[in-house]
Amino acid sequence: MKILIIEDEARAANQLQILLKECFFNYDLLGILDSVVDVIDWYQKNAAPDLIFMDIQLADGLSFEIFQKVKIEAPIIFTTAFDQYAIQAFKVNSIDYLLKPIQNTDMQAAIDKFTKNNMSTGIDQAVLSKLLTSMQTSNQRKGILVKDGNGFIQIRTEDLQYIYSEDSITFGVTNEGRYIIEETIDHLIQSLDPGQFFRINRGQIISKTAIEKIQPYFNHRVKLMLLNPRNQEFIVSRPKTAEFKSWLNT
């Protein structure tokens, strides 16, 4: 069994492999890809896998964008931290999914389903387009609950300068200080205004209003100077550089 893992977080990709081993699933790993661009390039050069594990939020966008460029016929098991409305849409279209954090029993159930059917479920392009539009534009939140001492307070998203992950903890920074957010970067980026916030790499989201200066960086990347960096370095990943520049012009 030849599988392809499409996942932009190394820890999550490793966890998938551990779970597959615990479920006694024998496979050959063809590769681990972390971006839409890499997947499209890989498909142009390699034979199709038998099964794909695909994260929804990748380093340079939503994985649904892949289907607009490449014809994928292999069965797909999505891994997702999205809200229930999206999961229901997958179920209606017979697309299997694993909700993060992935549990052993859920993995086993997905494998059992694949083993019994062992065929492509097919992807409805009309539904796919609606999902892509919905996930990019819906539920743009106005506030985020953060830790404050022994309790919680709500900060306005418009006050956020940037969000970053460090040692598996998510932090949000405003002019008033740094706060712990009990949500992942993956989950947060889906509910923030895409005109105001941009995920520049796996672990950082920045607000357009926080950028003071942009500098060229090696390997065709750019480095950002922010108004309140707090000893953080902000480098836009190579797959996202072109999209980032376009975003700044909007």
Q: Which sequence of strands runs across the widest sheet?
A: 2-1-3-6-7
Q: Report the major sheet.
A: 5 strands, parallel
Query: What value does the Rg take, in angstroms?
Result: 19 Å
Question: Given the C-alpha coordinates, what overall shape results?
Answer: globular
The ordered H/E elements are EHEHEEEEHEHHEEEEEHEEEEEH
Modified residues (4-aspartylphosphate): 55
Domain Response regulatory: 2-115
Keywords: DNA-binding, Phosphoprotein
GO molecular function, one term: DNA binding
Which SSEs are present, and which pair or pack?
Elements: E1 2-6, H1 10-22, E2 28-33, H2 36-45, E3 51-55, E4 57-58, E5 61-62, E6 76-80, H3 84-92, E7 96-99, H4 104-117, H5 125-137, E8 143-148, E9 151-156, E10 162-166, E11 169-174, E12 177-181, H6 185-191, E13 197-201, E14 204-207, E15 211-217, E16 221-226, E17 234-236, H7 238-248
Parallel strand pairs: 1-2, 1-3, 3-6, 6-7
Antiparallel strand pairs: 4-5, 8-9, 10-11, 10-14, 11-12, 13-14, 15-16, 16-17
Keywords: DNA-binding, Phosphoprotein
Protein name: DNA-binding response regulator
Pfam families: LytTR, Response_reg
Quick rundown:
With 250 residues, the chain is an alpha/beta fold.
Please tag this protein with its features.
five-stranded antiparallel β-sheet, 2 domains, alpha/beta, single chain, OB fold (Dihydrolipoamide Acetyltransferase, E2P), 250 residues, Rossmann fold
